[in-house]
């Protein structure tokens, strides 16, 4: 049910909510580097182990598969037991996965890499329930900027990624360790720090979300519209409701587009002879696009509406994908991958908030889990297609596919608007005929 506040004048955020949000943001700061490694390093690790680009989409595929497998079950866990247990469970899995992935290069084992990435991906995607936790703690008209503040924590992780890689390159030369595997073995320290921060969050955000009036004195819980009360969560209701259906499709398109581009960027720059450090810097710009503007996007989504941010965001990913695939200069590819991250940020924040607005607190974890499951399935599909497509037809063919994926929600929007205009004209004509 799409609900609005009776007291939209609420602007002051209680100190407790600020504290919890800051702790979650810092958690993302410590753990976000691993997500960057997955898309930055794994394509090169696969190329090193397999000596072919056919499996270059492995990281995207395994991250997508892990998201598909874990998103809804962890959402059910957090809806039942609270947000913190689900997040901590994810971080424990992620910790185990980093060690396995890091060891795969020393063992020169592709199966170990696959197993480690699957475990790591399930952990990190389970930890994405942090977004649900942030949404719980804020009223609807502040929810966009809440997710924006949370995502800013990932920006610190973006800054840490190239630093850790440069340190690892230098250290690997001294100790004779595989340079692509060593960065993963540094991540457990950061993940443990993130787990400690989550433990300090009190009370559980689900508890806050179910009793917002205790934390926002002028807040009045809105009454659900007549006939809208649901006795149990029904996933298909998200697809029947037009705003949430469009949010899911747009988020999937942005995720699919970005999944392709993250593979393209590493391979394109590596093909041109750029160093691992230069590739890391380019991917850092991509990640900066994903997170640096999340607060403005969140505020715009609160002020202008979710669609006003969501659809321009996916259009931006379309432009960026074209630049990565069809240009050659380092700066042009880097700008393109930055635009893809920027567009994904806008689309993801607005789509997530649209779904969070619709769902009750006690079902919000599963609702966001459904959205993440669809996005995970899209990532798997793109991974299965990207590697072989690059191997057979080259980088531009995969770039064209990324552009086409981003077009889908825009075409759906045009069709929807055309249908609305036609319905209005028919209604007007019927009234005139009376």
Give an account of the 3D structure.
The structure is a single chain. The radius of gyration is 22 Å and the shape is globular. 80% of the residues lie in helices and 0% in strands. By secondary structure, it is mainly alpha-helical.
The averaged pLDDT comes out at 87
Outline the low-pLDDT stretches.
1-7, 225-229
What name does CATH use for the topology?
Answer: Growth Hormone, Chain: A
Structural category is mainly alpha
* CATH architecture type: Up-down Bundle
Query: What is the C-alpha radius of gyration, as a whole number of Å?
Result: 22 Å
Question: Nutshell version of this structure?
Answer:
The protein is mainly alpha-helical. The protein contains 17 helices and no strands. The chain has one domain (about 15-215, about 235-425): Up-down Bundle (Growth Hormone, Chain: A), CATH 1.20.1250.
